[in-house]
Amino acid sequence: MLLIVPSRIVARGIEGVFNDLGEFFVEGILTDLSRTSEVRLRNMDADLIVVDPVIFDCASRASGRSRISEYSDAAVVALQTIQMEEDVWRQYDDTINIYDDPPVIIRKLRAVLSGRKDSPKAESQELSAREKEILVCVAKGMLNKEIADLYNISIYTVISHRKNITRKTGIKTVAGLTVYALLNNLIDASSIE
Questions:
Q1: Are residue 7 and residue 61 in the same domain, yes or no?
Q2: What's the angle, vertex CA 114, arms to CA 113 and CA 115, rounded to 5?
């Protein structure tokens, strides 16, 4: 499990509860989603992420779940520490409240993980908006460095997106990805070099 919580005190408290109950192991704690944190998120193989949506600014809270999905395909549960609009909470696999009793939290987390195991994953998952942008750039023949410069992201982020694209589509070659982009109307034939 990974915690993304801006308060280290709250994060350590949650970690202590899980350690006491022996049910879940906290692999890491992030206090934000800076570039450094995004790299850690991408490199961790957590099956469950608990996130406090206050880490996102007000404008991006409604899409916080999809932002995390760009870096991990883990189940994502929101930690409710303050009141927010219902739209914020609905995007997550479930919500736990900071005032919930530990057995309630454990039950909810078990249900989320059980639900993910019971529902078979599609062979090709839906690409995120950023992955589609990266795919278009790859299909146009751009290099990783050029893509990184275009979107003002690190080259490692581009490589990570490319790995996710390959995993989700099952396509390993640039030519295959180009055909995929053409068939899914992400690009037209005239835009390919």
A1: yes
A2: 90
What's the rounded Cα separation, in Å, for the pair 186 and 139? Answer: 10
* pTM for the structure as a whole: 0.61
Beta bridge pairs of residue 30? 4
Please tell me whether residue 100 adopts helix, strand or coil conformation: coil
Neighbouring CB atoms inside 10 A of 44's CB total: 16
**pLDDT mean by block of 10 residues, the chain; 193 residues:** 92 88 86 80 83 86 82 88 88 92 91 73 68 92 92 87 86 88 86 70
- Choosing from 118, 148, 170, the residue where a domain stops is 118
Residue 31 to residue 50: CA distance in whole angstroms: 12
- CATH number for position 37: 3.40.50.2300
How many contiguous H segments (helices) and E segments (strands) does the chain have?
Answer: 9, 5
